[in-house]
Specification:
- Keywords: ATP-binding, Disulfide bond, Kinase, Nucleotide-binding, Rhamnose metabolism, Transferase.
- With about 500 residues, the protein is of the alpha+beta class.
- The chain folds into 2 domains: about 240 residues, 2-Layer Sandwich (Nucleotidyltransferase, domain 5); about 210 residues, 2-Layer Sandwich (Nucleotidyltransferase, domain 5), CATH 3.30.420.40.
- Helix content is about 40%, strand content about 20%.
- The protein contains 19 helices and 19 strands.
- The protein has a 7-stranded mixed beta sheet with strand order 15-16-14-13-17-18-19, sandwiched between helices. The protein has a 4-stranded mixed beta sheet with strand order 3-2-1-6. A two-stranded antiparallel sheet has the order 4-5.
- Strand 2 and strand 3 form a beta hairpin.
- Helix 10 crosses helix 17, helix 13 crosses helix 15 and helix 15 packs across helix 19.
- The longest helix is centred in the last third of the chain and has 27 residues.
- It starts with a strand and ends in a 6-residue tail after the last helix.
Length: about 500
């Protein structure tokens, strides 16, 4: 590692909020420090029957982040990069203008599309090509929905850019596709590591819109003269990183071993492990696991789990009804509720985007012959216990697919601030849980920039730096007998859900 100090800027965009974080590397001390210089909400907008991302508002917030970086006294920023959620995208016309606001992955325009595509191509064939978990909002199904319902938009499209690609284009004027996010589209071949031309042709999609992906850690331009003039800042170099935020979060897992299990915990929970190659077995298909590209030639074998979206949506609904309890207060209400009374399968289709999440949870319990939670605390307790038990379910399947036994689980992301959920996860899995760091995706973004700039040698060194720089809290499992009985009940309830 080069002995020097360096400051870089990470934009980390989640499905509910975004942040601009400046990282400073002091290689002599072997430590990283970070400062959040700007945070903002990321609120989708309902327009008629469709849900969209407010992409121009996000661009405005990125500009504010660059300004706040300057106002906080960081005049030596060497580079910046953007990571975000996966699957969503924008389309550019031949003149470079954006063709409409990107759809939100929870929009209903893809309803029924996945089954049509699977019927036409074959589930086994599609999985063998892409290795991706079947989720109705994957980019492939969004594009087919556009072809069916808005074909003129695709006819006018010249370039397909995923959310970080699109925002980078707005900042630099350069169009590039980044590898880790491209692999989440279900149009990227997991074996040939190229866009799957045969699949794209079978679906009748315009193949020319897909740009050859570049690797994480590649310079892809600099702030454009127009942006520099508008913000009165120098032309900062812009890099790709693991632009799918989960790819960046996995970079930041402070594991001491090469073989580890991780849980990136936020609006979504993503649980799995890092492998050297995709796992495309019949069992992986049957269990609907996903293989996504990681940085530096790694593969992420994982499962998407609905996550803290369930609590976030309950809170949003209760706020509409005039209740003002914070997340911390809701957790306290849940803590005093009698355990193991009711369970849900967090991944049941009915929880994807309901109008009233608390009523939906009650309906699931009613439909599966359980006691129905009544109070807010009971509903939150139901969610948290069910998430922890689902984590065990997926962790054990990850072990079977990878052929590795994990003595514990690394949790990164904002969800680690929910200490009760971390303890429940340790209890449910009956293993140690190592929680930290909170800003996993942002840290992964930062260290890939430093590797690209030559300040850090490799991924192993980056993880060691993160472990030395940020606290990791260890949770020890408790009440093994109670949680084992709860797991049996949970598995019975989950077997009745709509999840395949």
């Amino acid at each position: 590692m080069v002995s020097t100090s360096s400051a870089v800027l990470a934009f980390d965009l989640g499905a509910s909020s975004g942040r601009a974080i400046v990282g400073r590397l002091d290689s002599e001390a072997g430590r990283i420090t970070i400062e959040e210089v700007h945070r903002f909400s990321n609120d989708p907008v309902q327009v008629g029957n469709h849900l969209h991302w407010d992409i121009l508002r996000l661009l405005h917030e990125l500009k504010q982040g660059i300004l706040q970086t300057k106002h906080h006294g960081y005049s030596d920023i060497e580079s910046l990069a953007i990571d975000s959620w996966a699957v969503d995208f924008g389309l550019l016309a031949s003149n470079g203008e954006l063709l409409g606001n990107p759809y939100h992955y929870r929009d209903h325009h893809t309803d029924g599309i996945m089954d049509k595509v699977i019927d036409g191509i074959g589930r086994e064939e599609l999985y063998a090509a892409t290795g991706l978990q079947f989720l109705q909002f994957n980019s492939i199904f969004q594009l087919v929905a556009l072809k069916e319902n808005n074909p003129e938009l695709l006819d006018r499209a010249a370039t397909f850019l995923m959310i970080p690609d699109l925002l980078r284009y707005f900042l630099t004027g350069e169009k590039h596709s980044e590898y880790t996010n491209a692999t989440t589209t279900q149009l990227y071949n997991a074996t040939s590591l190229t866009w799957d031309a045969s699949l794209i042709e079978q679906l009748g999609l315009p193949g020319q819109i897909f740009l050859p992906p570049v690797a994480s850690g590649t310079q892809v331009g600099a702030l454009s003269p127009a942006i520099c003039e508008e913000l009165d800042v120098p032309s900062i170099p812009v890099y790709t990183v693991g632009e799918h935020d989960t790819a960046s979060a996995v970079v930041a897992v402070p594991a001491l071993d090469d073989n580890f299990a991780f849980l990136s915990c936020g609006t979504w929970s993503l649980l799995g492990t890092e492998t050297s190659a995709p796992v495309l077995t019949e069992q992986a298909l049957a269990w609907n696991f996903t293989n996504e590209g990681g940085v530096y030639g790694t593969n992420r074998l994982l499962k998407n789990i609905m996550g803290l979206w369930l609590i976030q949506e309950c809170k949003r609904t209760w706020e509409k009804e005039g209740k003002t309890a914070s997340f911390a207060e809701l957790v306290k209400q849940a803590e005093v509720v009698k355990p193991f009374q009711f369970f849900i399968d967090p991944d049941d289709d009915m929880f994807l985007n309901p109008a009233h999440m608390p009523k939906q949870i009650q309906q699931f319990c009613r439909d599966t012959g359980q006691t129905v939670p009544q109070t807010d605390g009971e509903i939150v307790r139901c969610i948290m216990e069910s998430l922890a038990l689902k984590y065990r379910f997926i962790l054990e399947r990850t072990e079977q697919l990878s052929g590795t036994t994990y003595r514990g689980l690394h949790i990164v992301g904002g969800g680690i601030q929910n200490e009760l959920l971390c303890q429940f996860t340790s209890n449910a899995t009956q293993r140690e849980v190592w929680a930290g760091p909170v800003e996993g995706s942002a840290l992964g973004n930062l260290v890939v920039q430093w590797i690209a700039l030559g300040y850090i040698a490799n991924l192993r060194e980056a993880r060691k730096l993160i472990r030395n720089s940020f606290p990791v809290k260890t949770y020890q499992p408790e009440d093994g007998a109670g949680w084992q009985a709860a797991y049996a009940s949970f598995c019975l309830v989950a077997s009745r859900s709509t999840v395949k």
